[in-house]
UniProtKB/TrEMBL annotation:
Entry annotated with the keyword Aminoacyl-tRNA synthetase: no
Predominant cellular place of this UniProt entry's protein: membrane
Location in or out of the cell: Apical cell membrane
Pfam families named in the record: SSF (PF00474)
GO molecular function: monoatomic ion transmembrane transporter activity; symporter activity; vitamin transmembrane transporter activity
Swiss-Prot/TrEMBL GO biological process terms: inorganic ion transmembrane transport; pantothenate transmembrane transport; sodium ion transport
InterPro entries, sorted: Na/Glc_symporter_sf, Na/solute_symporter, Na/solute_symporter_CS, Sodium:Solute_Symporter_SSF
Keywords assigned: Biotin, Cell membrane, Glycoprotein, Ion transport, Membrane, Sodium, Sodium transport, Symport, Transmembrane, Transmembrane helix, Transport
Catalytic activity, reaction form: (R)-lipoate(out) + 2 Na(+)(out) = (R)-lipoate(in) + 2 Na(+)(in); (R)-pantothenate(out) + 2 Na(+)(out) = (R)-pantothenate(in) + 2 Na(+)(in); biotin(out) + 2 Na(+)(out) = biotin(in) + 2 Na(+)(in); iodide(out) + 2 Na(+)(out) = iodide(in) + 2 Na(+)(in)
Membrane-spanning residues: 17-36, 56-75, 87-110, 131-150, 162-184, 196-214, 243-261, 282-305, 342-365, 385-406, 412-437, 444-465, 518-540
The protein, known as: Sodium-dependent multivitamin transporter
Physiological role: Sodium-dependent multivitamin transporter that mediates the electrogenic transport of pantothenate, biotin, lipoate and iodide. Functions as a Na(+)-coupled substrate symporter where the stoichiometry of Na(+):substrate is 2:1, creating an electrochemical Na(+) gradient used as driving force for substrate uptake. Required for biotin and pantothenate uptake in the intestine across the brush border membrane. Plays a role in the maintenance of intestinal mucosa integrity, by providing the gut mucosa with biotin.
Subunit structure: Interacts with PDZD11.
Amino acid sequence: KTPDTETITSYFTTVDFVLFALLLVASMVIGLYYALSGGRQRTTQEFLLADRSMKCLPLSLSLMASFQSAVAIVGTPAEVYANGTQYWFIGCSYILGLLIPAHIFIPVFYRLQLNSAYQYLELRFCKTVRICGTITFIFQMVIYMGVGVYTPALALNAVTGFHLWGAVLATGLICTVYTTLGGLKAVIWTDVFQTLVMFAGQLAVIIVGVQQVGGLSDFWRKIREGDRISSIDLNPDPTVRHTFWTLALGGVFLMLSLYGVNQAQVQRYLSSRTEKEAIMSCYMAFPCLQIALGLSCLMGLVMFACYGDNSTLNEQFFTSKDQMVLYFVMDMLQNFPGLPGLFVACLFSASLSTISSAFNSLATVTMEDLIKPHCPSMTEARATLLSKILAFLYGLVCLAMAYVFHLMNSSVLQAALSIFGMVGGPLLGLFCLGIFFPWANSTGAVMGLFAGLVMAFWVGIGGFVTQMPSSIIMHSQNCTDTVATENMTMATVTAILTAVTDKPSKPVGLHGLYSLSYMWYSALNSSVVVLFGLLVSLLTGPMKEQDLTRGTVYPLVEKIHPFLQMLAKPKSCLGSSPEHRVICTISQSSNVYNLSCTLVSIVVDCEC
């Protein structure tokens, strides 16, 4: 039986509070250590980039922890409990989602010796594009941090009865202080410590939960009987919320927006000692991410094995399905003093690592992209002090955003990923436009980014608005269905609306666009930026090769030349005599126009 609020509060003992307090104290100590050791954070190079001295192991753990937030720890188990293990297939997207940054984005950024990812945009295009990219990133991260601050505070409120906004302030201020004091070194090493706490907390819940079920054999039997081990869903319909394609392919674009061009991650790549170590940190992040995903999914399966379909977890007692995880944890760990505190520490560790990364990266882009270019004579000491003040101010702004998220009506996991897809997708498209297409110009970049953002908010907001009528309908039928209604997939919402209006269940027209799975947001929006940017660039005059800054374009043709040369060997056309052959020659030059013409001639000359 699921505990009520009074019994849950009693489960959180003095030992639990001590463990939770130790997490916060340890994070503060790490921040103080790096504030008082080494160069004592006296330069922007040390405060923002850790003196470019980090090794690959702590970097890889920090890369994982930066976006393995409380959102994932709370949202993923709830998703698996409700819908099975289909979400686990997002792990397939980690392969390309990390290989492409390792071998394309990192070499480009590292060799240019950047301090901010958006410096690249000025080198490749112009200052206007850089400012547009910076402002878009700031908007993205401030909104997302509202989710990161609010989620663990909601957990602490539900488990201990601690005042919700007291928890928000405690989380935000502690994180702000150690980030402001210790700089990027403190952020990375607290990430390492907090990652270990995260894994420990999740493992404790899984082990105790499996024992409560009756062992591994009973655990496996119950989840099999409950049909929670999902097979591969190859449905190509992009409006279905989670299929193999939406997760494995749509997830690649989401991963690229996070691990390819997001300042929080690029800053870590740039802080490594060498380019090789930066690439290795990306490789080492892969198993870390898989372990984190596996533990979160296992927690969801353990929840189902313990409670099944008819659990009291579905009662109106819960204000959100994401809260279910906290009540399950307290139910499982009630007889183990200290373990509830360990899990809450796990949750806050995930939150702190994400928030601190955001504060540091926001301070970096504001200083490097918005302030320094206009104050070239600013002294190093003043720039460092201003960077610390900016980190502190962003902490206060993110606390305000937590209240905004409190007013939203959506699943925590979907809301967080949707925000990254809506805003991160256009930024990904902007960087891809510059890195892969040498003829793209500044006008095309600005117009492409604008078009991508318009598409992002059009589809994103349209999707949220489309869900509103279903909530009204369901509320009028039964007030106990609030939780289920708030967290319905777009496919379910569509079915209800069409059942009421006697229209076909398949979404069509604009409604079909609004029903697009949130996992495709990044792919759609980045594609709009690239296509619109290329079109505008060709109409306004492509950028000339001599105007390109050396090192800002990835030599794609040179890299794939051996493969294309192998494909372009002389071969006979089908249905033709052997003497009729098409000979393809590919120039060693990286000029993309010549390559395009060669490929067209193959198609035209050989109607195979």
